Amino acid sequence: MPDLCTVSGILYDLHGSPLPGVGIRLRNISVPAAIGTTGLVLGGSRRVVSDEDGAVRFALIQGAQVHVEVPGREQDFVRTVTVPEEDAIDLVALLYPHLVSVAWEDDTAVSVSDGEQFSLVLTGTFSDGTTADVTSACTFEIGDEDAVMHVSGGTFRAVGTGSTTISVTAVDTDDLEVYQEPDGDVIERVGVDDPTLPDPVAVTVS
Q: What is the pLDDT of residue 8?
């Protein structure tokens, strides 16, 4: 028996009322095509229907890739998701992953020479367990701009001897692909906490 992840959530209409009898279609794209040496993963698609309370609940193979089709849109929303290697996940976290936290790829102190250019990378962790480089979406604050200047993205230049810090003050999630629909429109969310940001990284210029 493969390891399964249980997906659950509730479907609502614009008035906040649960939507019973609404189907979400799951399409097998043959990833994986087999389990171990004895099991094949078959079946084209399955339609999961919400109950009288608007609730849906279904299990998927951990690590599988699935097309999820959500009806009721001007065009049905289709998203390819990778099922996390977890026992359970919320439907929203699977379909519309949001940024949970941001961390420096290397959070050790930086030592550079005056005039040297250097780069920092930030990795975001999302609600479905995936990670991605989010450096380009970050806003930075430098403690002492007489020591370090921001060039662009995660690139900085040492401009004077001394010590300072570089902090991440915000992340423009609208720039992240996971926050966009296939046509480029931003997926609007409400009631989602801001991501946890990392502690400042120390920089010494000599």
A: 96
